[in-house]
Design goal:
This protein has seven helices and five strands, in the order βαβαβαβααβαα. By secondary structure, the chain is an alpha/beta fold.
């Protein structure tokens, strides 16, 4: 069965990609560049594509989201928060997964793929509204009525990590041989690609590795 994988090169999407391969899916990775300040994840994604001989099947899609000026992942004049907040943080990219899944559905229809995999998580996450089960359910309803593949055949979104903690995601990845040294998670890396260790994404990753009792292979400016 063909499957489009939304693949950023991060910990979660890499786990999803390798898991889909292990389950026998015919995988087509989709990597979207949208002007994110942590674009090193895109270059890191190529390492995993090479490892699994997927470069010829992968699609790189470029978007200009620079008008989204309130997002600190896009507007480098804004500081990435280094403290946990009680509200949706500035690292939220407006409608990102809505946009990404729309692009993925078009790619899936072109390939006549039946599945779209996305690595969203609603347990250990930053509170983004488009990472929740309600959002995935609503998008599946949209694909069922708003795409040719959904109406005439079958097209659905799978979010296999959505109910897992970061600890459980890492444990899953280690059990299927994910090489986490090829991934990147930091929202505010140094010029040479070292992770900051302070942003929300670094904190969640580091805590997950500690809880899973594995060593995180990445270099950090500071570890919690």
């Amino acid at each position: 069965m063909r499957a489009v994988i939304l693949f950023s090169g991060g910990l979660d999407s890499t786990t999803v990609l390798v898991n889909a391969l292990k389950k026998g899916y015919d995988v087509y990775p989709l990597t979207i560049t949208y002007g994110q300040r942590h674009s090193i994840e895109i270059s890191k994604s190529l390492l995993t594509l090479e490892k699994y001989d997927l470069k010829k099947k992968a699609l790189s899609f470029n978007l200009d989201l620079s008008p989204y000026k309130n997002c600190s992942l896009i507007n480098t004049n804004l500081q990435v928060p280094d403290q946990i907040e009680d509200k949706i943080p500035s690292t939220y990219v407006p409608s990102r997964n809505l946009i990404f899944l729309s692009i993925a559905s078009g790619f899936a229809e072109t390939l006549e793929a039946e599945k779209i995999f996305i690595g969203v998580n609603s347990v250990d996450y930053s509170g983004y509204p488009d990472c929740r089960p309600e959002f995935i359910k609503a998008m599946n309803q949209t694909l069922a009525v708003g795409t040719k593949q959904g109406v005439e055949g079958s097209l659905s979104i799978e979010a296999p990590l959505i109910d897992l903690s970061k600890k459980e995601i890492i444990q899953l990845g280690m059990s299927i041989g994910v090489d986490y040294s090829l991934t990147h998670s930091c929202y505010s890396p140094t010029i040479d690609g070292k992770s900051c260790g302070k942003c929300d994404s670094c904190r969640l990753r580091l805590e997950g590795f500690v809880q899973a009792k594995f060593q995180d292979p990445l270099d950090y400016v500071r570890k919690i």
